[in-house]
């Protein structure tokens, strides 16, 4: 098992970033086609039709958000940056070695779209179920 770590600087403040990461409305703006919250579970629907029920493990508003994600552990850590923005660290732990390179690259796609939405109110995804990561499209 391996761990992926990425850092991202956003102009948006931690409150806005936390809302994008943790609310159904926020999640659908940058990450999945649909998301529903049910207590401590987020139900994801992705562009390729795949679904996942993600257990929320830890949530400290505007600071940390941890969840089970495809049988691995994803941790988002938010820190207020000097310019009022957010320094985000993503850690994806327990990623199977056989999935590492795909998941590693996939997080870049997700995080860059998060930046586009948070800082520029622009969704970079194509929203076409025939043009997803499975077919080699990074703008899924």
TrEMBL record:
Residue ranges of the Activator of Hsp90 ATPase homologue 1/2-like C-terminal domain? Answer: 11-117
Question: Which InterPro entries does this chain map to?
Answer: ASHA1/2-like_C, START-like_dom_sf
The entry's family comment says:
Belongs to the AHA1 family.
What is the protein's given name? Activator of Hsp90 ATPase homologue 1/2-like C-terminal domain-containing protein
**Which organism is this entry from?**
Flagellimonas hymeniacidonis
């Amino acid at each position: 098992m391996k761990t992926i770590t990425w850092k991202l600087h956003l102009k948006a403040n931690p409150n806005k970033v936390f809302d994008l990461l943790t609310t159904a409305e926020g999640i659908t703006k940058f990450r999945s086609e649909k998301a529903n919250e049910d207590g401590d579970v987020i139900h994801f629907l992705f562009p390729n039709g795949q679904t996942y029920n993600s257990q929320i493990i830890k949530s400290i508003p505007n600071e940390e958000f941890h969840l089970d994600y495809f049988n691995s552990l994803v941790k988002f850590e938010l820190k207020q940056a000097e310019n009022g923005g957010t320094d985000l660290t993503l850690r994806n732990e327990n990623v199977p070695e056989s999935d590492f390179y795909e998941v590693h690259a996939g997080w870049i796609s997700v995080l860059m779209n998060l930046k586009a939405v948070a800082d520029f109110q622009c969704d970079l995804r194509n929203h076409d179920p025939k043009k997803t990561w499975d077919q080699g499209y990074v703008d899924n």
